[in-house]
Amino acid sequence: MDSYKHKKVISIGIVSELTGLSPRQIRYYEERQLIFPDRSKGTRKYSFADVEWLVEIANKREEGVQTREIRYEMMKEIRETMRKGQINAHFRSRM
To answer: Is the pLDDT of residue 16 over 90?
Structure first.
C-alpha cells in the first residue's frame, strides 16, 4: 500500500525538519517548478513522496546540478512515463 506516500498532509515546517532544507529553499524549488505542494488556506501541504524528491533535489544540487537541469530530467521522465502508458493502453485496446 503505497498511497499514503502521495497524500499531501505535511506542513512546510515538518518538511524542513525532515529534509534539512530551509522553508525558503523549499519555496524556491516550488518557484522553479520542481515540487508541487497542495495549497489550502494559504498553507502548503506536502507528501512523503515530495519529501523524498526534495532530498533527491538537494543531493543533486550538492553535486552541482542546476535546477533547470533537474527540471529537464524530471520532465523527460514524465514524458517517457506518459508515452509508455499510451503504448500500453494502445496494446491493451487491441486484445
So the answer is: yes
